[in-house]
Amino acid sequence: MARPVAQEKYWDRMAGEKSFTVPFEIDHFGQYVSRSADILDVGCGYGRVLGQLNSAGFTRLTGVDMSSRMINTGRKHFPRLAFFPITAGHLALKDNAVDAVLLIAVMTCIETDAAQLALMGEIKRVLKPGGIIYFSDFLLNTDRRNIDRYRRFDEQYGCYGVFELPDGAVLRHHHPDHIARIISGFRTIMFEKRVFPTMNGHQSNGFYYIGENG
Questions:
Q1: Which segments of 66-158 are extended strands (E)?
Q2: Number of compact structural domains in the chain
Q3: φ, ψ for residue 207 (rounded to 5)?
Q4: pLDDT 10s digits, 55-99
Q5: Which H helix or E strand runs over 176?
Q6: CATH number assigned to the domain comprising residue 119
Q7: Taking a C-beta distance cutoff of 8 angstroms, is the pair 18, 71 a contact?
Q8: Structural domain of 105
Q9: CA-based, 20 to 30 A from 164: which of 36, 148, 204, 209?
Q10: How far apart are CA 60 and CA 207, in angstroms?
Q11: pTM of the model
Q12: 205 near 138, Cβ under 8 Å?
């Protein structure tokens, strides 16, 4: 099983080389989150979505990521925004600290159920009651290329949908029932399935979700 440090080293190595491609539905997000809200982007990478929010008039923005090189890239590109490194699975914030949380193509980088549930528990902890979570990620695909790699790594990782890329990444595509489980602590406002471009130029099933912290 890949360790968090391995993922951290991978994303440090890829900082400046990978462009993140999962769309952010800012118009829908803006229907539920005011421009004065405290917004936390968990797994912010180099700050792509935070920059988009800032350009749209959102001002109280913080990004956290386990890759220090991604954080440094974000600080360089968006010097007026706040970026901080984090340890995998722990958010160094007080309870009920933020009005909204973004979680965009982050769970795909966390291959175990336990680690995903732990992170979602942390998000629920730091999110104010009635706060908004915007969550998007990848779902299982049924084409031959994906089925072959899901099967190839199923026994190694003990989870159908986890796979390795030749460049060293360990990623996961998710069954909808699993996604339903990890969002069960929130009240669903919106859930839509989509097809997303991947960072390596392919297409994948995916979803985006907006929920309220109960």
A1: 82-85, 98-104, 127-138
A2: 1
A3: -155, 160
A4: 999 999 999 998 888 899 899 999 999 999 887 668 999 999 999
A5: helix 176-182
A6: 3.40.50.150
A7: no
A8: 4-15+22-213
A9: 209
A10: 26
A11: 0.91
A12: yes
